[in-house]
Amino acid sequence: MKEVSTARTSTGFKELNRVLGGGLVEGSFVLLGGDPGIGKSTLLLQMAGGLAKEDRTVLYVSGEESVNQSALRAQRLGVNSGKVHMAAESNLEVIRELAHEIKPDVMIVDSIQTVFLPEIASAPGSVSQVRECAAQLMGLAKGNGVTVFLIGHVTKEGNIAGPKVLEHMVDTVLSFEGDQSHQFRLLRALKNRFGATHELGVFQMDTRGLQEVDNPSELFLEERGERLIGSAVFCSVEGTRPLLCEIQALTNFTPMPQPRRTSLGFDVNRVHLLVAVLNKHLGLRLANADVFINVVGGLRLIEPAADLAVAAALLSTETEREIEAKTCFFGEIGLTGEVRAVSMVEGRLREAQKLGFTTFVIPASNRKHLNDLDAETKKKIFWVKDVHDLTKLFGTDGRRVKGKTAAAAASREAKVAEQERQKAAAHSGRQAGASRPGVDTDDLGF
Ligand code: TYD
Ligand code: MG
Known about the structure:
The protein has helices at residues 14-20, 40-53, 67-76, 92-102, 127-144, 165-169, 216-221, 268-282, 307-319, 345-354, 375-379, 387-391, 398-431; strands spanning 8-9, 24-25, 29-34, 58-62, 84-88, 106-110, 147-153, 172-177, 184-192, 200-206, 209-212, 231-238, 241-253, 261-264, 289-295, 327-329, 332-333, 339-340, 359-363, 381-384. It is an alpha/beta fold. It folds into 2 domains: 8-214, Rossmann fold (3-Layer(aba) Sandwich), CATH 3.40.50; 219-398, Ribosomal Protein S5, domain 2 (2-Layer Sandwich).
């Protein structure tokens, strides 16, 4: 087979380059999905500015905003090169003519849900329109070597609106995520024919548009409080980059027969699994407790390596003991309570050390891969074989933890018993037609 070179162009954003696999590939077909208002138009407009600096001609076609609006935004973002052409158009035939006239290196279509082909009767955004328009734009990319970016809105369920076929057609699917209440924006490659997937780019939205975040770990730990009960730091690996984040856990008494398990940023099924493992192996009784897990900063973790930090945060909140602030965890927990090896340990250790972490709680089974580690770092490692070893962080041995968690569970059980007793008393009181003197129970809203 002949070797084909893929020339890459810098987009002006190091983060975007990395997510794309090292820059923009000529003639590639890229889909950028994300919630409305997350910053898709801003990102690609700023990218257009970056590409213009690399002497590339860009055509930005918006079916959502007028030329005036787009130009005003471009101006505000400092994109003012003559190499960036703006157009407000949604008729694909006109867009194709424009492309033939301007001959851009890169074309951005904002968004695929607004463009239409007049010969198709259905409305823009419908399955047949989206499919047909995307096919024509793919022709432009593959036939004329124009790199085409499509912006796609995401439906409530989190899928890019339009047929799944859109994702099959494109070379790369990027997803722009983030919490509207946070300034962070995370760019992820969900599919990439030209690079690794799950690579993560971190941006921050401010008045000058999107800024790259060079040290995201610092950012995610920035607001870490003083009171660290129920808080553990995890070092994840997103694509090729280690990233530190805080995991919080809270357990709270509930009289409900079905306690809640709520998890933000971490798979709730794994929370169920961890609660069961901690119950079976450490006697953590959470039957009368709601359990909340939160990954701070709107990050979504997919790695099971987060298990150890989640378990530590849960133990911390149940025993009401703080985890030492400069402790970092990673390790997967199995059903028999064993802590399993994870990948890229050295990278994770380095990232945590860079941010001043001094204790690393990591799987003992990773030990054999770490022979080359310097003695200084080795001293800071606390190896854990199973969840029992984890309890040593919360007391001199596992027994103290058991005592603490048992006390927490017992106090919840006592509350349930007390409520049962009160209910029974109220019931028998009502049946006897008696109410306490001077108190009308109806007024109390019982
Ligand atoms: P936008 O790129 O229009 O989002 P999308 O195309 O994904 O719908 O970004 C919209 C939000 O970004 C808007 O709420 C305002 C905010 N924003 C800033 O905070 N600073 C800026 O410089 C720009 C251009 C937008
Ligand atoms: Mg937009």
